[in-house]
Design goal:
By secondary structure, the chain is an alpha/beta fold. The protein has 14 helices and 14 strands. α8 crosses α12.
């Protein structure tokens, strides 16, 4: 029997009306509200036979840690694998809204963080989604005001921002604090360190005003703070074996996977090819991602932000299943998760088929795959 896994408890704080995972665990830990109007684009290859679906609807975040989707769609790499089947994309700023869209059939495939993936799977009792691939690792840093904090021990008594109660970075920071032997109440954020839940959109302003002394933040928020004079005190990669941990993976609705396995396989080929293109052309890929972000959000990232942020993210096909399991256990220890069984959250058979055909090594589901 597999060991019990985890799902979030309901929040006892101001968000008590909704399940904590649905509120707090946003995709890639950005913690922001979903856009009311999703940015939608269509991308069809110049020819080729349609697959079993006329269209495939793909959701992702307009952010660097989702560059596999951002670049793959911008450059037409994903569309190329789909022949005449059209790609329709929607962007989101919060994991819960992307999961809701997947459940409603508004999207078929999503690029999303580990915590909302766990939430979507557990809330549906294992019936809504599968994780079918990886997209990105890393891209999270502890950045601080160097005038107030010079060593890790100096964090005691300081105010450190995380994106949202119970999100991926919040759990990581609470676990790190616990391992230091310090005490923090997970719900209130009060204790030896004050954990200040702050939307990444306003974290730079909070830092500038002095209302926080630093942040455990994803990119590009971390690099935005550094551009304001903050210092990187710890890169979260240093806390993980081989310096790898999942920050973005690929999910699919189980219904779409069952009905259109050829389309799912084609999207995965596009994802694998996009990651290979990013690695082979890092400067072109970074420029492509920034151009897409400008198109989607109206603003591109300055070099002083995008350059260090891009360097800290690794775009990979492996979903790093064992690290998702570890992240869940950290949340249990922090008191934010109840135990549940995540067996079956992964179906890596389509990805491994694609990888084998490309002459690449297969990836492992850490015992959490479908039977």
């Amino acid at each position: 029997m597999p060991a019990p896994r985890t799902t979030l408890r309901r929040s006892l704080a101001a968000v008590a009306a909704l399940p904590l995972l649905a509120v707090a665990l946003t995709a890639c830990g950005y913690g922001s509200e979903a856009e009311d109007d999703e940015a939608k684009t269509a991308n069809t290859s110049s020819g080729g036979k349609k697959l079993s679906a006329e269209t495939v609807k793909i959701g992702y975040f307009p952010n660097l840690t989702h560059a596999t989707a951002v670049v793959g769609i911008q450059e037409g790499i994903i569309a190329k694998e789909l022949g005449g089947t059209t790609v329709k994309s929607s962007t989101f700023n919060a994991g819960p809204s992307e999961i809701e869209a997947l459940n409603a059939g508004s999207i078929d495939i999503g690029f999303i963080g580990p915590s909302p993936s766990i939430n979507g799977f557990s809330k549906s009792k294992g019936k809504s989604l599968r994780i079918i691939g990886g997209a990105a690792s890393g891209g999270v840093k502890l950045v601080v005001d160097p005038k107030k904090i010079k060593t890790l021990d100096d964090l005691k008594g300081k105010k450190i921002a995380t994106p949202q109660l119970g999100n991926t970075q919040d759990v990581a920071f609470l676990n790190w604090v616990s391992e230091k032997g310090w005490k923090v109440d997970a719900q209130s954020g009060k204790g030896d360190v004050s954990v200040v839940r702050t939307d990444n959109k306003v974290t730079p302003d909070a830092y500038r005003s002095g209302s926080i002394d630093g942040a455990w933040a994803p990119e590009p928020t971390a690099s935005k703070l550094v551009a304001q004079g903050a210092k990187v005190l710890l890169d979260e990669r240093k806390l993980w074996p081989d310096e790898k941990f999942v920050i973005t993976n690929i999910i699919v609705s189980q219904k779409f996977l069952a009905e259109h396995p050829d389309v799912v396989e084609a999207v995965l080929r596009g994802s694998v090819n996009t990651n290979a293109w990013i690695k082979a052309n890092p400067d072109k890929a970074k420029a492509s991602a920034n151009a897409a972000l400008k198109k989607l959000s109206g603003k591109e990232l300055p070099a002083e932000v995008i350059d260090p942020a891009w360097e800290s993210i690794e775009f990979i096909d492996d979903p790093l299943a064992s690290t998702l399991d570890t992240e869940a256990k950290h949340a249990v220890k922090a008191g934010l998760l109840d135990e549940t069984d995540l067996s079956g959250i992964y179906d890596l058979r389509p990805l491994n088929k694609v990888l084998k055909a490309a002459g690449k090594p297969e990836v492992d589901d850490a015992g959490l795959g479908v039977e």
